[in-house]
Amino acid sequence: MNKKAALLFVPALALGVAVLTSGPAVAATGDASYQGTLDSINGSNGSGTISIQVSGDQATVTETVSGLAETFDGKPYPHVQHIHIGAQGVCPTTAADTDGDGVISTTEGQPSYGEIGTTLSTSGDTSPAAGTDLTVAGMGASFTYNRTFTLDAATAASLEAGTAVVVVHGLDPATLSQAAQDAPSDLVPSLPLAATSPALCGALSASQSNMPIGGVQTGGGSTSNGADIGLLALGAGALTAAGGAVIVRRRLAARG
Amino acid sequence: MAAPAQKPISVTPSPEPIPVPPTPQVAPVVGPIMTASEPTQINIPAIDVDSDLMQLGQNPDGTVQTPSLDEASPAGWYTGSPTPGAIGPSVILGHVDSRVQGRAVFYRLGDMRPGDEILVTRADATVAVFVVDGVEKYPKDNFPQFTVYGNTDHAGLRLITCGGEFNETTRTYPDNVVVYASLVSSHAA
């Protein structure tokens, strides 16, 4: 594919820049980690975070979003989401609304964030072909997404180049002008414009820090292990930085 | 930042290439930045902390290691974070107390205030000087991972310890205290 050659060329240009800003490499294994903050676009008032751990050709995506449109035709609102690649690696500003309808459509945003490289689908195909399949979208106002899948070369190259951008789609039509509410989607004309327009956007960049797991298992269960009570008592003042698996960590750390 | 509006000729997932701009975005860097060098000591005059620094990695379950509670432990630098002075969120962890040593190295961390200085001596014989931006307390079961460990546009430092009221049943503290600081200068050790 010609497109692939073009994409591979971009990283070479971008790498010199990325080194200046991305800080120390995180992992010694050759694996990489990326992160992004998902910000509201088109007045969605949603927010979220996403991190992507790449190990070989496998990508593990951990994403949390909230504050999005909740229902669509009385059912949980399907928010299709993608990693867009190969353009400027930024989220569009209102200047991208070239038709002036008050909505930055997915197409209008493409000069900023590029085309779909990977569909963050909940099951099955993760290629661009699944990009508008509503049945594998994130559902409802808030959701978490955790999935490991095989990363394609083009998306991998864009991640490395710092030009990958996550876009979560789907607006509440009530927040749009009447004209925009009545407009068809630029992607799937049978759907309204609101359904496919960007609601969250976040540029991905190499993680400066290898984020520890911030679990939610504080003190869970292990207190029933009598033999450990003394040690646990010692652990009274242990800091538990990331919140999770407190007891396990203390035991492991005790000999550290 | 926005490219000149180019009339879209197709919609995704068309294979038509998007025009590639010559210069990808450059994240702005705020304030001074030092080259990477591992930290060896931390000194916090405002709360009388003067501690060697050990190195802490991750446990097999992906959580961050903590210093030993069997003896009077120093604070520790989390090796998965940038070295203090480099761009990004450098993390230094310390106990608030323990049965062995009573008050531990970061016992008074919650007393820190914006403007307080934190001095970190590094292996390259330089001292990174940080100034506190803020002090926050978070419930451990709702720890803001991205706020604490997420990318920054400056050389940041986070000091972390336990907080809240000790729970005698779970033998844990419910909260973490996090001190946020930024690099302001550096000098020879």
TrEMBL record, chain A:
The portions of this protein that span the membrane are: 229-248
Q: Does Transmembrane show up as a keyword for this record?
A: yes
Q: Which residues form the signal peptide?
A: 1-27
Q: Write the record's keywords in alphabetical order, separated by commas.
A: Membrane, Signal, Transmembrane, Transmembrane helix
Protein's name according to its UniProt entry: CHRD domain-containing protein
Source organism of this protein record: Cryobacterium adonitolivorans
